[in-house]
Amino acid sequence: MSNIVRIRKGLDLCLVGGASGEAVDCVSVPTRFAVFPDDYCGIMPKLAKKEGDVVNAGERVLFDKRNEDVSIVSPVAGVVKKVVRGERRKIVRVEIEADGSDRHEMFDVASDDADAVVSVLRRSGLWAYMRQRPYDIVPDAGYDKLPRDIFITAFDSAPLANPYTLLNKDTALFEKGVGILVKLTRGKVYVCCRQEEVVETPYSETYIVEGPHPAGNAGIQIANIKPVNKGETVWTLDADTVVRIGGLFANGYVDFSCVTAVVGECVKKPFLMKTTAGMPIADLLKDNLTEPAEKCRIISGNVLTGVKENCDGYLHFPFRQITVIPENSHESEFMGWASLSAKKYSFSRCFFSWLGRKDKKYHFDAKINGSERAIIMAGEYDKVLPMDIYSEYLIKAIIAKDIDKMEQLGIYEVAPEDFALCEFIDTSKLELQKIVREGLDYLRKEMN
């Protein structure tokens, strides 16, 4: 029998441009794909392949300097076409030109004991798809660092997201994947899902999570089921990754297919597409924008936590969503932000729009409607952050780099995405996700 967790705090942003229906196949065949080391926080990347090298799907192109078994792999078979570097020769991305073949890197999955499972997951690239609390990084790679528990998120509550993320709705491979993950924890495997799409297996404990966003965030689920304390480690991953793990141990190779929601106000016909991880955004948006690309904000991910990309960019991990909103709309609007228009959205009820229907959809653009200012201690964050922490004081402690205060105020429980809604409603216009990321990196460096 499933347990129920009710999330009271939070906020569902009703944006124009949602997708519905079944996923369709990709019409065009992409020829170039990319992997981004920055998508896998905690890894110090080093090239395993050079330009011109031939790779199979699932063959590593990057690895972690601190542990060479932890790999970032190519999602397709082809040739390493280009290594793009940034400042101080930092690896920004590796581009692979697909050759259209079906070559896969094969892995020995005969043994399913814990050590063998860890080794296969690290070499196959699926290890990098998981996250560890504390620090919200790719899990530490030691065999002796298995987690207290593992949390699987089987839905996405972010704005315009496809709510059901179980890849191809393959419950058989999902169950097999959970059976593999059970071997990697001293505790339990928890599966968190919605009432309308309950996912249960013999190896896990299922929780039905009710409530608004950020109910779909792993950190919120952990905090309301079994919080992380100092000295404890918890792993998190989404249901799609579990299906890939099940497929790896069933077939011996990794399937990098994914279902991506192409959504947003600037998309003519929002839809769900079956595609491959790391594909070009141009192929997803081809002839489907209401405005020229330079007038749009293209986001790989959702509007709260996604990465800004150009039209010639690529789909970033976790490969579930592309959102396109106006970059600077209503430039000549009368009275600007001071307008009392009922069409404007305000969390603090500054406009008359709050008197309307709760499910009314709003037109959002990329403006921040104000400038950054000193932090205002107004209790705003606590209205949308369903965690038992003093969030505003935690932000102040992070800015001050006060490690003792950070620990006392619950930094081991949080990740940047947990503060995305706080950043959206923040009167101070602070980059809270960036602050939290820097705080976690600083704490990890000092503690290790």
The Cα radius of gyration reads 22 Å
Strand elements, count: 19
Distance, first to last CA: 41 Å
Arrangement of strands in the largest sheet: 1-13-12-11-14-10
DSSP helix count? 9
Strand content: 15-25%
Write the SSE topology.
Layout: E1 3-6, E2 24-25, E3 32-35, E4 45-47, E5 54-55, E6 60-64, E7 67-73, E8 78-85, E9 91-98, H1 114-124, E10 131-133, E11 149-153, H2 171-181, E12 189-193, E13 205-210, H3 218-225, E14 234-238, H4 239-251, E15 257-263, E16 271-276, H5 281-285, E17 296-300, E18 307-309, E19 321-326, H6 391-400, H7 403-408, H8 420-425, H9 432-447
Parallel strand pairs: 1-13, 2-16, 11-12, 11-14, 12-13, 15-19
Antiparallel strand pairs: 3-9, 4-6, 5-8, 6-7, 8-9, 10-14, 15-16, 17-18, 17-19
Helix pairs in contact: 2-4
